[in-house]
Amino acid sequence: DGVPWSDYTYPLLHLSTAYSKANEFDIIHNHLGSHYYSLYFSPFVSTPITYTYHSSRIPEELIPLCYKDTFVAISESMSDLMSYLPNRTIVYNGISLDRLDFSPNQGEYLVFLGRITHKKGTLDAILAALEADVPLKIIGKIDQLNVEDKTYFDQEIKPRLEDKKIEYLGEIEHDDIGAYLRDAKAILAPIKWEEPFGLTVIEAMACGTPVIAYSRGAFPETIISGETGFLVEPDNISALVDAINNIKKIDRRKCRAHVENKFTIEKMVDGYEAVYRKVIAEHKKS
Which residues pair with 51 in a beta bridge? Predict the structure, then answer.
């Protein structure tokens, strides 16, 4: 819509509307991304509040505003990074398996799926694919309003698209992404930061497609190295290439089974319902 992520007018309008009706709700559940404005509303209502934090570190100086509230991390690694938070618990993200078709057959190309930015490791994926001599399809958004991301694409990514093995497909409708994941040899996730979860990883494995990733953030929790893909030393292109060359060792059925066992939308819903019941019960006692 042309509204930059740095413009928080609409999130604030949304929050003020919800909190003005706080007495109508049993619980308020906030999702914290790159801003924490909802924390400032907490002291003004008696309705119990739960937060799920998805990305950035919550500043410690804001914690006194919401000491009575409950915080949900989407991975153990993220929870560990914020050990100073009160009332902390973990609920993994989940996905709907009905929307992702499984294939036992390995494809001929690699996929990079994610925003085109340095911290997602797009360049490392390209360099590894070129060295392994395997075609790479890049799917993801370039934030034209983010100067750093646009510069990264123009200087680091765009020149390498001249190689016919590297194909940039742009941003694709979510319902269409599954087919690209299903038919791939593997998905590359060479992240440069402490990834809080990484939904693309479990979406790929649900299709049977193994994941090759740098061992950072939550990936050691979501990927079983040697079974559903490979975790390799961060920032090591040669290690990515070795993993690509050994990807046939991965049983794609185990990738699908891993997601079915741990990361379904049903398991996520059960986790949040348990949190809600606990929070509401404790609130009634107080």
Answer: 30, 71
pLDDT at position 25 is: 96
Residue in 13, 46, 14, 8 with CA at minimum distance from that of residue 27: 46
Distance CA 186, CA 136 (A): 10
CA 234 to chain CA centroid, Å, is 18
The pair of structure tokens assigned to 235 is 């920032």
Given 3-state DSSP classes, what are the helix, strand and coil percentages for the chain, each rounded to the nearest 5?
45, 15, 35
Tell me the three state secondary structure of residue 198: coil
Rounded distance between C-alpha atoms, residue 47 and residue 21, angstroms = 10
Long-range contacts, 31-36 (Cβ 8 Å, 24+): 32/56, 32/58, 34/5, 35/8, 35/11, 36/62
Characterize the bridge pairing of strands 211-214 and 186-189.
parallel
pLDDT digits (tens, 9 = 90+) for 84-135: 888 899 999 999 999 999 999 999 999 999 999 999 999 999 999 999 999 9
pTM comes to 0.92
Beta-strand pair 186-189/110-113: parallel
Q: How far is CA 16 from CA 10, 13, 54, 177, 235, in A?
A: 10, 5, 21, 35, 43
Q: How far apart are CA 156 and CA 150, in angstroms?
A: 10
Per-residue pLDDT reduced to its tens digit, 182-227: 999 999 999 999 999 999 999 999 999 999 999 999 999 999 999 9
CB 183 within 8 A of CB 107: yes
